[in-house]
């Protein structure tokens, strides 16, 4: 039998399941788009919205395969897209934790919020590119076993790298919360040379009910995406002709369902309404004050009159 006549999945994708996932990701992506616009959070376009759109494309390709199970094009499309689609959601985790640490006190962490974002976003981009390149090589090399294996190994390297970076992130995040709850900063706060007082952000922030929900959101998303990454790693280790990749229910549960849970968690427990602005009372910047609170307004409110000097003429 010729390669183009082979069922590359080892099964025919269930049409109803594919439709359900396309609908679910479409709804989530639309909600994320509306939330990003409403709350003016532009970084969500490149993370949650992008991830949702990528999942729509991937599951639409699987839906196409349910009609044309012997066609290579939809198989290659879903292979390349579904492997990289959750990566932007992982990036959202890194950004969200940085925002949380800004509010609870950045000096409880080993890194500043900026460096958390720079380091782990860079790792996520490397992982995404590696998986995409591997998927492209594997998809375009169907019929050439050695090249398919090369592509699979590159994809596997990308997944392992992503899982390793998430693991380091989880360790650092866990240490941060332990230090926060025990009030043991990991770094010494920087002080203003003029006043000898700590800069804003160096104080222990208040863990509000909304921040608790935001932390729950980050932890839940992390769990779902780690489960998905472990599954994809095991799947690729088993190979493209292995039992794992050719068992549809495992892909539906450990890939599709895990990403659905992660992306809807962010829809519901959204940073737009959970990440409140928290300022240290004694370190409020002048730009954050209303005109009535400014020093000039306070001076004028005293209604002071200049002293009258009387000169006696002799």
Q: Could you write a compact summary of the structure shown?
A:
The chain is 65% helix and 0% strand.
Please explain how this structure is put together:
The chain has helices at 15-38, 45-67, 72-84, 87-104, 113-140, 145-182, 209-238, 248-268, 271-274, 295-300. It has 314 residues and is mainly alpha-helical. The protein is globular and about 65 Å long. It starts with 14 loop residues before the first helix and ends in a 14-residue tail after the last helix.
Strand element count: 0
Low-confidence stretches: 278-302
H/E series: HHHHHHHHHH
Indicate the structural class.
Answer: mainly alpha
Q: Which outline best applies?
A: globular
Proportion of β residues?
A: under 5%
Number of helices: 10
Main beta sheet:
none
The proportion of residues forming helix, as a percent range, comes to: 55-70%
Radius of gyration: 27 Å
Distance between the termini: 126 Å
> Quick check: average pLDDT?
84
Task: Present the secondary structure layout.
Elements: H1 15-38, H2 45-67, H3 72-84, H4 87-104, H5 113-140, H6 145-182, H7 209-238, H8 248-268, H9 271-274, H10 295-300
For this entry, give a set of tags.
about 325 residues; mainly alpha; 10 helices; about 65% helix; about 0% strand
